[in-house]
């Protein structure tokens, strides 16, 4: 008979075992929540071989603790308070920080309450193998569970809980190390409470719990030199009433409390939005809010009130009489604030000088501006969410007080972020001299009202500036691209055969062949960009020529005449979903990466390379699994029917665009393959004509080709624009057709969760400025009423003397548009599904599953739609799909920006090379923007945008987008330069003397030489 | 509610009218059975109490048993039923086991009668607690007071009001803090503005209403705190049932006694410290009749009895309140 005992809790115990709290829901209801707490005695302390605890528990803490710290020779563990994790996460995460850590449940919960990103970092920390971290569930262990006392704040209660746990641990360790008879008493390791809360330390001292502040602790560590720099600026002086911060004048107004902000936003008195810094003028920023069509303008440091690019802020909008127009002047932070001193920039004289500089910069003739250009103007009254991350920076060498490279003294220096949208960051470091000329990673810790600049701390060095590795890594970090190599768990998801994997012989016994159509005999070929191109984007972007041999072919085509006179055409896409199963480590990683990122000299894969370059590459003469879309089309390219099927194909040939073009045009060739290409081509022409008739846009982006010599040296040899073949558009048309057909199918099967892609029509106001410029400068009209009208009027924007003018207008029009996005069909209304640029009512991405995660999802949904496999439950959940779409959209955007930045870097390198070879680089350029003191120009040959600055004042006519500059020769009349004018510029790559930040500098050569200005 | 025969009725009546009056359980005419009161019985409610009258001390069975629980809900004023300053909504429901003999529609009628009396008395604006208001004109608390009758062994109205009173006594309103956003024109420091814009245009305009405080939302300053007691909790009335016989009256009738009297008088008094008590409500129930002179003298008596009940209840509730003030997490 098993013995059953019922442990019934007496009612009086409810005090300790029940926790009651109120919760205010998002809809404003108040709920009373009651939770049961079961206290137990068998929660392990986590120390290896602890005699007092359950022996079976998996423990991680070494038995004698850490013995390397000066102050604790008998060994110790640290038990950090919540504020340590909130403020010093970089320190704790460092590889040099090796002390075993005890994390209390109370602390975990407090961290979660305060900051979710920090909480996930803490969670990640508790699961790494590199550091010894033990989570102790103190609230559930009967000895350490505490009850809130009357009139005790939640904070005090938690602090008491933490101290209680520290006390218990120290007592517990004596049990774990019982004295052994005949041996002298062992010196016991201690559990040290690590906290920056002065009051908590005092109380701990009274209760004789060993405790220490973070700074004091780190100073005693064996590798304190590296670690001290990681200390965040917050913490110590905030909670310790020692340093006098008072006496400094406040430069900014205080933020309103969070609850007030939310109330204000709710009541419509405040507006919430993301802060966007202006990259031309560091004293100006905008916040797009839903209440106004134009974003809210913030003018001046005080009104931007410590907002940093990307923060979610609450702004107060001024009266309409105070509204201003955005500045038309370029104000450069580095130039204006050259003489600012990092050590004590708050000193009065200095302060006044900076103030004067800035107010002079701000005092433009804003008031004279026509009222139409005025936009809502306001100020930041609070931050709803900070989006601070680690920024790639350079140390400003002039801010160093001592250049002696051996000096290890602590100095305060400025770090200038690579991104022009960010303010300078002040940080204290001992390694300043050795960091000059390096790219380093810096985190912002805080921004006080008394401090002009945010304060931060050094995270790590990336390497010498302009070295390929450092530039590459800084790019990836700057655009938050996950670039770590794939872990073992992910690689384990690949087929065990690896590179040797082949399609098994056809037999019903092989699961690969289940429900697959055998298309091995079809004349299928693939047409791709030249072999050494990493990727090509159909609509826009940059062709990047990489070293040969790393090609992935993810699509193939075929076409043949049917007996009834119609044509059968097929698109075959590598069957990635056969290898990537839902909810596996590989799938989760791919979902998090979202897309493959292409840099000029590196590709960061979304899926392991084995899939991309082999198993899912539709190489010629090799059997491969595919997902096929097969249409029956009439001669006029009307779809008669379409079917989707999983298949096995064996491509017959892989062509490059040029090859395919030659083959098509060669009248001597008449084999099946050539005929099929001709057939495809004729269909593609008709499809394109139809698309254009429907109002599809022909957009343009600067397109540049960078040749890399070889994989080793990888110095760009030259920059050139890409050539277009008819066959490019052949592939493009069929991919668009496949995507559209698939989109219809999955939307029909899964109306709530189909993964689709849309491109919203841009608001007409986006085009206001461009329309105005075209009208005034060229007398051209731009009709933006629909995509078709826009396409037509763009076709008419030609300057017979200047063929490149049309491309320029297209580029500028493209910039006025919104970006396309993925979405889940159940999340938006049916009438907003359309793709504006393609003029298609519905669209998705199906054709590149190897490099886009959305395509993987679409493959799964299509497979379920045709009854090939059941749909994974997560793809039925709207919330889940929405969440993935958000990630994928963000990653997609970041990836685009990263590759653009990478191209810019290489264009810079190429220019540098040219500057060394030639005496000077002079190129034609178009003026695309006029400022009071400069011109924005676009060098179409290099796809490069630049800024020409004039030091002397010029006459500026904002209405007509014209500036008038004095001519270079004396006696000659002044020269007027307007938008769309063609000028010649001299391009140099100049290194900022202080920060080593390379930048392209342009000066005007004609009509006037701007060096004189 | 129990059905008894005519002869039983006559027997009970005559013994009550005899001198000295005789009751089956040996009580005097104005004696109550033992009343047991326990508050905080429903942890998820904001306030609750259980009252039992005449429970058998040995096995805990029998007697009239009533549980009342108050639950607070946030309401938006002007949106549906929300009322500025909060409101109280009461309901009484009878467990079918309390009246096993009643058909379900009769039970509904009974519930409805009881609900209307309780609601009419307790939701009266004059006794509405002041702290049911969260944001004036915007948000307020709705106090739902639900009373359940588990068993009826006579004198159920007194029990209902006693339970209701104890539950309201026990009720704690979560503390809220109003959050507001005020346009702070005066303390703005704007470098460009001082130069370009004429300051005087903004100051002193009588039409400028932006300076007014506009409270728009509230927050809970302390999630772990039960809150503060309901305001003015002495004022909640007590109910007293006088069972009327032609020449006398008695209190706290058992079921049989209730069945044998033709008329009952319900009076509801609220007492505020030592001033004259306030007669909140009065009901005559039953088939018999009465006249003004009799009622006048009855009211005088009932006031005396009610004060005794009130004092006893108040004392007990205060004890209970202090012993139950439990620390929370």
Automatic annotation (TrEMBL), chain A:
Principal location: cytoplasm
Locations listed in the record: Cytoplasm; Nucleus, Nucleolus
Region described as Disordered: spans on this chain: 328-377
Biased composition (Acidic residues): 341-351
RNB domain boundaries: 516-868
Ranges for domain PIN: 76-202
Cellular component, GO annotation: cytoplasmic exosome (RNase complex); nuclear exosome (RNase complex); nucleolus
GO terms classed as biological process: CUT catabolic process; nuclear mRNA surveillance of mRNA 3'-end processing; rRNA catabolic process; rRNA processing
PROSITE patterns reported in the protein's UniProt record: RIBONUCLEASE_II
CDD domains linked: PIN_Rrp44-like (cd09862)
Gene Ontology molecular function: any one: RNA binding
Keywords: Cytoplasm, Endonuclease, Exonuclease, Exosome, Hydrolase, Nuclease, Nucleus, RNA-binding, rRNA processing
Pfam families the record matches: OB_Dis3, PIN_4, RNB, Rrp44_CSD1, Rrp44_S1
Family that this chain belongs to: Belongs to the RNR ribonuclease family.
Record protein name field: Ribosomal RNA-processing protein 44
Lineage summary: Eukaryota, Fungi, Dikarya, Basidiomycota, Agaricomycotina
From TrEMBL, chain B:
One GO process term, biological-process aspect: U5 snRNA 3'-end processing
InterPro entries attached to this UniProt entry: ExoRNase_PH_dom1, ExoRNase_PH_dom2_sf, Exosome_comp_Rrp42_subfam, PNPase/RNase_PH_dom_sf, Ribosomal_Su5_D2-typ_SF
One cellular-component annotation, GO: nucleolus
GO molecular function (one): mRNA 3'-UTR AU-rich region binding
Family membership: Belongs to the RNase PH family.
Primary localization: cytoplasm
Alphabetized UniProt keyword annotations: Cytoplasm, Exosome
Record protein name field: Ribosomal RNA-processing protein 42
Compartment(s) of residence: Cytoplasm; Nucleus, Nucleolus
Domain Exoribonuclease phosphorolytic stretches: 31-174
Top-rank taxon, per record: Eukaryota
């Amino acid at each position: 008979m098993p013995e059953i005992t019922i442990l019934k809790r007496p009612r009086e115990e409810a005090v300790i075992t029940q926790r009651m709290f109120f919760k205010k829901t998002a809809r404003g209801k108040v709920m009373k929540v009651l939770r049961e707490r079961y206290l137990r005695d068998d929660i392990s302390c986590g120390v290896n071989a602890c005699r007092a605890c359950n022996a079976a528990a998996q423990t991680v803490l070494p038995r004698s603790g850490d013995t390397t710290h000066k102050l604790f020779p008998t060994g110790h563990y640290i038990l950090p308070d919540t504020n340590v994790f909130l403020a010093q996460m970089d320190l704790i995460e460092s590889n040099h920080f090796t002390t075993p850590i005890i994390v209390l449940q109370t602390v975990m919960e407090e961290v979660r309450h305060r900051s979710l990103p920090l909480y996930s970092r803490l969670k990640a920390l508790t699961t790494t193998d590199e550091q010894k971290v033990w989570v102790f569930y103190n609230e559930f262990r009967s000895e350490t569970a505490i009850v809130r006392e009357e009139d005790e704040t939640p904070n005090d209660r938690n602090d008491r809980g933490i101290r209680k746990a520290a006390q218990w641990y120290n007592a517990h360790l004596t049990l774990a190390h019982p004295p052994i008879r005949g041996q002298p008493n062992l010196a016991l390791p201690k559990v040290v409470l690590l906290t920056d809360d002065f009051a908590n330390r005092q109380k701990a001292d009274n209760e004789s719990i060993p405790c220490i502040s973070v700074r004091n602790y780190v100073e005693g560590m064996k590798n304190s030199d590296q670690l001290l720099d990681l200390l965040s600026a917050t913490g110590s002086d905030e909670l310790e009433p020692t340093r006098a911060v008072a006496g400094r004048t406040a430069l900014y107004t205080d933020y309103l409390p969070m609850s007030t902000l939310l109330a204000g936003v709710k009541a419509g008195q405040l507006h919430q939005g993301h802060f966007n810094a202006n990259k031309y003028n560091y004293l100006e920023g905008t916040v797009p809010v839903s209440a106004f069509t134009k974003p809210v303008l913030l003018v001046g440091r005080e009104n931007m009130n410590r907002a940093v690019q990307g923060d979610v802020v609450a702004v107060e909008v001024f009266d309409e009489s105070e509204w201003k127009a955005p500045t038309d002047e370029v104000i450069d932070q580095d130039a204006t604030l050259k003489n600012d001193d990092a050590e004590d920039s708050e000193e009065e004289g200095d302060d006044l000088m900076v103030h004067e500089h800035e107010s002079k910069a701000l005092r433009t003739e804003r008031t004279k501006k026509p009222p139409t250009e005025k936009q809502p103007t306001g100020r930041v009254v609070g931050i709803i969410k900070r989006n601070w991350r680690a920024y790639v920076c350079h140390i400003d060498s002039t801010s160093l007080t001592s250049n002696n490279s051996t000096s290890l003294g602590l100095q305060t220096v400025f770090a200038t972020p690579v991104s022009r949208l960010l303010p300078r960051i002040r940080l204290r470091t001992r390694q300043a001299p050795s960091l000059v000329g390096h790219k380093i990673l810096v985190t912002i810790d805080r921004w006080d009202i008394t401090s002009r600049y945010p304060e931060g701390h050094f995270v790590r060095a990336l390497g010498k500036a302009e070295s390929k590795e450092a530039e590459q890594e800084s790019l990836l970090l700057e655009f938050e691209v996950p670039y770590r190599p794939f872990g073992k768990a992910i690689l384990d998801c690949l087929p065990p055969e690896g590179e040797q994997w082949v399609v098994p012989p056809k037999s019903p016994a092989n699961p690969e062949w289940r429900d697959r159509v055998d298309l091995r005999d079809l004349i299928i070929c693939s047409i791709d960009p030249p072999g050494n191109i990493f990727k090509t984007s159909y609509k826009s972007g940059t062709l990047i020529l990489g070293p040969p041999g790393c090609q992935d072919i993810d699509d193939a085509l075929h076409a043949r005449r049917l007996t009834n006179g119609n044509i059968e055409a097929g698109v075959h896409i590598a069957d990635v979903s056969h290898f990537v199963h839902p909810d596996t480590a590989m799938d989760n990683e791919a979902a998090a990466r979202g897309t493959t990122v292409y840099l000029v000299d590196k590709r960061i894969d979304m899926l392991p390379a084995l899939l991309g370059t082999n198993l899912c590459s539709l190489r010629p003469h090799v059997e491969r699994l595919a997902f096929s879309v097969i249409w029956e089309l009439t001669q006029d390219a009307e779809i008669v029917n379409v079917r989707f099927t999983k298949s096995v194909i064996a491509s017959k040939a892989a062509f490059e665009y040029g090859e395919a073009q030659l083959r098509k045009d060669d009248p001597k060739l008449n084999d099946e393959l050539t005929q099929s290409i001709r057939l495809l081509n004729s269909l593609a022409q008709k499809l394109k004509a139809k698309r254009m008739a429907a109002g599809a846009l022909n957009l343009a982006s600067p397109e540049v080709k960078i040749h890399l010599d070889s994989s080793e040296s990888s110095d760009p040899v030259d920059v050139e624009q890409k050539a277009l073949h008819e066959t490019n558009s052949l592939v493009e048309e069929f991919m668009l057709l496949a995507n559209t057909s698939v989109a219809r199918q999955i939307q029909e099967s899964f109306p709530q969760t189909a993964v689709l892609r849309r491109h919203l029509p841009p608001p007409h106001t986006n085009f206001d400025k461009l329309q105005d410029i075209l009208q005034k400068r060229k007398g051209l009209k731009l009709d933006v009423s629909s995509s078709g009208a826009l396409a037509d009027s763009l076709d008419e924007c030609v300057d017979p003397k200047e063929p490149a003018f049309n491309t320029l207008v297209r580029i500028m029009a493209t910039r006025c548009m919104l970006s396309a996005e993925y979405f889940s069909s159940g999340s938006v209304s049916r009438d907003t599904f359309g793709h504006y640029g393609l003029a298609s009512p519905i669209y998705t991405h199906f054709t590149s599953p190897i490099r886009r995660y959305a395509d993987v999802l679409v493959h799964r949904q299509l497979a379920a739609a045709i009854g090939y496999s059941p749909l994974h439950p997560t793809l039925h959940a709207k919330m889940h799909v929405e969440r993935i779409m958000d990630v994928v959209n963000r990653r997609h955007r970041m990836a685009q920006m990263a590759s653009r930045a990478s191209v810019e870097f290489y264009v810079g390198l190429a220019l540098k090379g040219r500057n060394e070879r030639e005496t000077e680089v002079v190129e034609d350029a178009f003026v695309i923007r006029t400022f009071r003191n400069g011109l924005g120009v676009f060098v179409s040959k290099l796809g490069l945008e630049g800024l020409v600055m004039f030091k002397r004042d010029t006459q500026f006519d904002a209405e007509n987008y014209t500036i008038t500059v004095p001519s270079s020769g004396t006696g000659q009349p002044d020269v007027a330069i307007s938008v769309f004018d063609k000028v010649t510029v001299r391009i140099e790559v100049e290194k900022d003397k202080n920060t080593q930040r390379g930048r392209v500098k342009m000066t005007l050569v004609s009509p006037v030489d701007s060096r004189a200005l | 509610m129990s059905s008894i025969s005519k002869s039983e009725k006559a027997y009970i009546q005559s013994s009550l009218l005899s001198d000295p009056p005789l009751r089956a359980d040996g009580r005097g005419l104005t004696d109550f059975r033992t009343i047991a009161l326990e508050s905080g019985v429903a942890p998820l409610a904001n306030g609750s109490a259980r009252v039992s009258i005449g429970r058998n001390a040995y096995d805990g069975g029998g007697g009239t048993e009533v549980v009342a629980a108050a639950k607070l809900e946030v309401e938006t004023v002007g949106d549906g039923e929300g009322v500025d300053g909060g409101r109280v909504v009461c309901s009484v429901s009878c467990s079918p086991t309390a009246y096993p003999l009643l058909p379900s529609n009769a039970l509904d009628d009974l519930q409805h009668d009881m609900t209307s009396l309780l609601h009419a008395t307790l939701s009266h604006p004059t006794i509405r607690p002041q702290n049911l208001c969260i944001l004036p004109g915007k948000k307020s608390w709705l106090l739902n007071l639900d009373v359940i009758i588990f068993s009826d062994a006579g004198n159920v109205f007194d029990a209902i009001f006693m339970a209701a009173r104890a539950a309201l006594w026990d009720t704690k309103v979560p503390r809220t803090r109003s959050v507001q956003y005020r346009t702070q024109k005066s303390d703005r420091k704007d470098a460009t503005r001082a130069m370009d814009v004429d300051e005087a245009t903004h100051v002193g305009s009588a039409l400028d209403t932006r300076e007014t405080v506009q409270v728009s939302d509230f927050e809970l300053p302390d999630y772990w705190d039960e809150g503060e007691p309901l305001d003015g909790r002495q004022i909640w009335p007590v109910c007293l049932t006088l069972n009327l016989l032609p020449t006398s009256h008695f209190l706290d009738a058992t079921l049989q006694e209730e069945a044998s009297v033709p008329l009952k008088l319900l009076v509801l008094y609220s007492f505020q410290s030592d001033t004259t008590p306030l007669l909140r409500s009065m009901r005559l129930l039953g088939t018999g009749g009465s006249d003004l002179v009799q009622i006048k003298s009855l009211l005088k008596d009932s006031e005396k009895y009610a004060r005794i009940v009130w004092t006893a209840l108040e004392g007990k509730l205060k004890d209970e309140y202090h012993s139950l003030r439990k620390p929370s997490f």
